[in-house]
Amino acid sequence: MSEAEEQRWVNVMLDKLAAQESKRLLGDAELSERAEQLSEQYFDGRARPASVRWVTNQNTRWGSCTPSEGSIRLSHRLQGMPEYVVDYVLVHELAHLLVPGHGPRFWRLLEAYPRTERARGYLEGVVAAGRLPHLPAAREE
Asked: What is the pTM of this model?
């Protein structure tokens, strides 16, 4: 297979994967519903955001919360990641509606979500992978 042919097939497969992932993506309305479900499940419904939405201007954070406004924003970079990772970021931001900082009380709230460590590890891996040098394609000899 030539390099050009290989690249064409890689692009075809990436397009197929992207199409599959886009079917799984939540819109803002579904994201708000998911936040409500997670608040009920992990915080007895006490964390009540006024708005939950995807944003494209967060490139160094996965999510943010403004407790005084009750607004939660998730980075579009999370779209297509495993559901438990998106749920973790939602739970994290919901917890900020109850405890604004990252002190011991905040982290105790997150203990309720059973996949916290796994999701944090996944996100750390994504960040680390982004720092890796991109290797050139192998050349045929």
From this structure: 0.77
